[in-house]
Amino acid sequence: MQIALAPMEGLVDNILRDVLTRVGGIDWCVTEFIRVNDRLLTPAYFHKLAPELLHGAHTAAGVPLRVQLLGSDPVCLAENAALACELGSEVIDLNFGCPAKTVNKSRGGAVLLKEPELLNRIVEHVRRAVPAHIPVTAKMRLGFDSPDGALVCATALAEGGAAHIVVHARTKVDGYKPPAHWEWIPRVQDVVKVPVFANGDIWSVEDWRRCREISGVEDIMLGRGLVARPDLARQIAAARAGEEVVEMTWEQMQPMLHEFWRQSVEQLTEKQAPGRLKQWLAMLTRNYPQAVELFTALRRETGLEQVGRLLGMTHPQPVAQS
């Protein structure tokens, strides 16, 4: 069984990846998508979005990081995939699941599920461009506005050379509305010979158990559920091993919040840092009543010293320059 941390644009950046992977239970994580248009990106651009590449493509906790690319040009994607490998990525992931309108308008993400032949060409080009020992993987949704083409798309990806496929069990039009349609995942697994990962609506150990029963697959990718419950991967790993599941307390969360804030102040601008903290706190409110109180107290605060004091930190760090 593998448990992966999902790529979530605008949410799971290198700071949150670092903090979440310290908890345990996560086997690997993925960058936010790196958009590829019509040119070869610079190493500096890759390092900006994935600074872990400067440290062996692992987080500080030693969890491997995979670079994810998004685009529709097979040749450009292949060239950038080759560069990502040169920079240290040991796996190349391809995004065919992003539902954002701005991304889809630029022929990126889930809109490509309308073109299974293009999916196949993209994976083939990338597969040929990277070293043979580097796996090429893909993340998809069930379709754009209907799951009717899910099996064709999954087959196209697998035949193109995808080593595994992560299936977010919703269509693009579904967005993030519950429920996730886990019942489609075994149908996908039936038509491909590569491993399929289940993704979508796994918020708890009980959700994981139901997902495993319905989907029939062992491997999972956790997104919002892990951000809202940082020890979810660890809980699931314990449950899978037949061990006692011990939930992280709010008190145990404090060092994580402090480390997140410290890195945010170091790496982000004075305007960005409080916003990113509030974004994470808003998700933590799903499982921690204390997060509601802290979020309410911080809602209108923008000053670094005030935020630090409310977190119980007396020595805020200097802010990165914009």
Automatic annotation (TrEMBL):
<keyword id="KW-0285">Flavoprotein</keyword>
<dbReference type="Pfam" id="PF01207">
    <property type="entry name" value="Dus"/>
</dbReference>
<keyword id="KW-0820">tRNA-binding</keyword>
<keyword id="KW-0288">FMN</keyword>
<dbReference type="InterPro" id="IPR042270">
    <property type="entry name" value="DusC_C"/>
</dbReference>
<feature type="active site" description="Proton donor">
    <location>
        <position position="98"/>
    </location>
</feature>
<feature type="binding site">
    <location>
        <position position="68"/>
    </location>
    <ligand>
        <name>FMN</name>
    </ligand>
</feature>
<feature type="site" description="Interacts with tRNA; defines subfamily-specific binding signature">
    <location>
        <position position="299"/>
    </location>
</feature>
<dbReference type="InterPro" id="IPR013785">
    <property type="entry name" value="Aldolase_TIM"/>
</dbReference>
<dbReference type="InterPro" id="IPR018517">
    <property type="entry name" value="tRNA_hU_synthase_CS"/>
</dbReference>
<dbReference type="InterPro" id="IPR032886">
    <property type="entry name" value="DusC"/>
</dbReference>
<dbReference type="GO" id="GO:0010181">
    <property type="term" value="F:FMN binding"/>
</dbReference>
<keyword id="KW-0521">NADP</keyword>
<feature type="binding site">
    <location>
        <position position="168"/>
    </location>
    <ligand>
        <name>FMN</name>
    </ligand>
</feature>
<feature type="site" description="Interacts with tRNA; defines subfamily-specific binding signature">
    <location>
        <position position="278"/>
    </location>
</feature>
<protein>
    <recommendedName>
        <fullName>tRNA-dihydrouridine(16) synthase</fullName>
        <ecNumber>1.3.1.-</ecNumber>
    </recommendedName>
</protein>
<dbReference type="GO" id="GO:0017150">
    <property type="term" value="F:tRNA dihydrouridine synthase activity"/>
</dbReference>
<keyword id="KW-0560">Oxidoreductase</keyword>
<keyword id="KW-0694">RNA-binding</keyword>
<dbReference type="GO" id="GO:0000049">
    <property type="term" value="F:tRNA binding"/>
</dbReference>
<comment type="similarity">
    <text>Belongs to the dus family.</text>
</comment>
<dbReference type="GO" id="GO:0050660">
    <property type="term" value="F:flavin adenine dinucleotide binding"/>
</dbReference>
<keyword id="KW-0547">Nucleotide-binding</keyword>
<dbReference type="InterPro" id="IPR035587">
    <property type="entry name" value="DUS-like_FMN-bd"/>
</dbReference>
<feature type="site" description="Interacts with tRNA; defines subfamily-specific binding signature">
    <location>
        <position position="35"/>
    </location>
</feature>
<feature type="site" description="Interacts with tRNA">
    <location>
        <position position="95"/>
    </location>
</feature>
<feature type="domain" description="DUS-like FMN-binding">
    <location>
        <begin position="5"/>
        <end position="271"/>
    </location>
</feature>
<feature type="site" description="Interacts with tRNA">
    <location>
        <position position="176"/>
    </location>
</feature>
<feature type="binding site">
    <location>
        <begin position="199"/>
        <end position="201"/>
    </location>
    <ligand>
        <name>FMN</name>
    </ligand>
</feature>
<feature type="site" description="Interacts with tRNA; defines subfamily-specific binding signature">
    <location>
        <position position="276"/>
    </location>
</feature>
<dbReference type="InterPro" id="IPR001269">
    <property type="entry name" value="DUS_fam"/>
</dbReference>
<feature type="binding site">
    <location>
        <position position="139"/>
    </location>
    <ligand>
        <name>FMN</name>
    </ligand>
</feature>
<comment type="similarity">
    <text>Belongs to the Dus family. DusC subfamily.</text>
</comment>
<keyword id="KW-0819">tRNA processing</keyword>
<comment type="function">
    <text>Catalyzes the synthesis of 5,6-dihydrouridine (D), a modified base found in the D-loop of most tRNAs, via the reduction of the C5-C6 double bond in target uridines. Specifically modifies U16 in tRNAs.</text>
</comment>
<feature type="binding site">
    <location>
        <begin position="223"/>
        <end position="224"/>
    </location>
    <ligand>
        <name>FMN</name>
    </ligand>
</feature>
